[in-house]
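Let's practice the habit of predicting before peeking. Look at the sequence and jot down your guess about where helices and strands might fall. Then scroll down.
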Amino acid sequence: MSKLIAEIKDVLSLHLVTNVLLSLTYYILKVNRPICEYLFDDCFLELKEWEWITFLGCIIVIKGRRQSAFLDYANTACMFAKFLNGVMLFKASPIYGLVYFLAVLLHTIVLPRPVYQGPEYVTYFRGPHLQDELERDKRITWIVTFYAAWSPQSVTFAPIFSEISSQYKLDNLKFGKIDVSRYPDVGQKFNVDSSSWSKQLPSVIVFENGKETNRKPFISPKGTVVRYRFTKEGLLADLDLNNIYQKCKQNPLKVRKEKKDEDIAKEKKEN
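Done guessing? Here is the structure:
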């Protein structure tokens, strides 16, 4: 129930509502009197404009097929719709187009898309420390993001990974990150390309028993990178993270008792 309420709040967020209004701006202005009579020569959409809108619908359907969440689909649709609005308004008058562009820019700055800003439970690795940690205790399952600070996709994915770490952390299920732009040798070791033309940033790899068991984006047997769009819901499903979480929860770490100095001295005397 709480999840449903949270989803409703996201749909009714001020960001999405204003985004939809911006996406419908040209249609609202063009068909509603007396606004259309003041701004345009007529109050109906021309045949060419209907063709553009139909073409826009086709693009949204094609681009939206890979979206696993409604909010991602809605924001993708709004992005293309705002572009078409800008073109049609600029065609009607360059001034209208400029004003609309400024409105979209203001919306992006003042009402950005809500992102997770809560706590994160992520270990940031440096150099060889990742390999050392994987070998230190193989009972721990690690979910590690290989990223680059200059990569826009890595920046966009960061709050998603932080939120997942907050929801799924356990003593034997941990989350880590390493900047492969600073440590390219580590990226090479784990087969993650850190070059500026890389299609692997970010990459998320699951390590169980110290070994890789899954990764996104996937690398085909031919060595090509299978393009992947990072969303929270998609990543949880593709990494089977819910099952990993349940397995780790059912098999908690058993505390290894360390011998005290007194016990060690006593054992030496007995021997």
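How did you do? The chain is about 55% helix and 10% strand.
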